[in-house]
């Protein structure tokens, strides 16, 4: 009995010590994430407007009624969904192809990886300003080369017009996001046992079958995490859109983060901005849960 009590006491103090080690991180997470989140939910059902007063009163679901009755909300929501789906799907496909290429080269591999990763380390302000200049409708690099030097096109392309603004923003975000996903997938590819490829080749599998039956099953976990992270980053994207188009022309490239920013820091209606944030939170949660359910279902089928 004494020996059993001694072991349980040791386990108890080991657990206490473990919790003490993670307590600073939990306090920081509570202060920087959970408390502001709860405060945001609280503000969403108030009339908080700092132009009127720092005091706020409970107004129920009035902010949500105002948002859903806004004639532009449907367009903004559509932009958000298109933006997230296009950027995430295209980024994953491009990153997979580049990762396979990186794993196939034998010379200057580290230099090539550094070049591939470069767009990710650039600040969003630099990325936005760079592509704003490249796609400028009058003196941009693309128009200058295609129209004035090569004479391929008769007239300048207006990349930031109402018809093309969202597509331009999607392209820039794909360019910004693919390096991270590529490096993660490249690391995942390196972790696959080479013996599986040799066995598949001996069995007579071609390149497509090897990719589908060997690479993809062993890469599903990394692919799921990368896709989910890319989707969340995209749906929360703000800085590059703000520099490129500021959500315009009109609301053609406006997403929920842009509306939250304009409502909170231009109109100072923090109650309404918080309501937009709550809506975005539930949209991201819904996308994440659906995606995780799909990937879990496919994993169970393969098992």
Number of domain units: 1
CATH superfamily: MetI-like
Uncertain parts: none
Rg, rounded, reads 25 Å
What is the overall number of helices? Answer: 12
CATH topology: MetI-like fold
Q: What is the end-to-end distance?
A: 45 Å
The helix/strand series, from N terminus to C terminus, equals: HHHHHHHHHHHH
Do you know the CATH architecture? Orthogonal Bundle
Helix content: over 70%
Q: So what's the CATH class?
A: Mainly Alpha
What general outline do the C-alpha atoms trace?
Answer: globular
Strand content: under 5%
Counting helices, strands and paired strands, the structural category is mainly alpha
Mean pLDDT: 86
Number of strands: 0
Describe this structure in words.
The protein has one domain (71-302): MetI-like fold (Orthogonal Bundle). The relative contact order is 0.12. With 303 residues, the protein is mainly alpha-helical. The model has no long low-confidence stretch (mean pLDDT 86). The protein has helices at 2-43, 62-68, 73-104, 109-121, 124-134, 141-149, 165-190, 194-202, 207-235, 239-244, 256-265, 270-302.
């Amino acid at each position: 009995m004494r020996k059993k009590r001694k072991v349980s006491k040791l386990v108890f103090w080991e657990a206490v010590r473990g919790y003490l080690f993670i307590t600073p991180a939990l306090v920081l997470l509570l202060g920087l994430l959970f408390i502001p989140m709860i405060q945001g939910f609280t503000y969403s059902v108030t009339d908080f407007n700092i132009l009127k007063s720092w005091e706020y009163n409970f107004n129920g679901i009035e902010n949500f009624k105002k948002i859903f009755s806004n004639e532009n909300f449907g367009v903004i929501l559509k932009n958000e969904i298109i933006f997230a789906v296009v950027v995430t799907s295209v980024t994953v496909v491009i990153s997979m192809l580049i990762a396979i290429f990186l794993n196939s080269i034998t010379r200057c591999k580290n230099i090539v990886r550094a070049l591939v990763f470069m767009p990710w380390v650039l600040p969003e302000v630099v990325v936005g300003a760079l592509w704003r200049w490249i796609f400028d409708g009058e003196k941009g690099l693309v128009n200058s080369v295609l129209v004035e030097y090569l004479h391929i096109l008769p007239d300048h392309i207006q990349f930031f017009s109402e018809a093309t603004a969202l597509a331009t923003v999607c392209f820039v975000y794909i360019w910004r996001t693919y390096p991270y996903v590529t490096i993660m997938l490249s690391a995942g590819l390196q972790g696959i046992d080479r013996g599986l490829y040799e066995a598949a080749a001996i069995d007579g599998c071609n390149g497509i079958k090897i990719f589908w039956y060997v690479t993809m099953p062993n890469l599903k976990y990394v692919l799921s995490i990368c896709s989910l992270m890319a989707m969340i980053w995209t749906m929360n994207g703000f800085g590059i859109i703000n520099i490129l188009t500021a959500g315009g022309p009109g609301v053609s490239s406006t997403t929920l983060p842009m509306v939250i920013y304009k409502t909170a820091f231009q109109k100072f209606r923090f109650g309404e901005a918080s309501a937009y944030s709550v809506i975005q939170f539930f949209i991201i949660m819904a996308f994440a849960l659906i995606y995780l359910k799909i990937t879990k279902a496919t994993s169970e089928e393969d098992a």
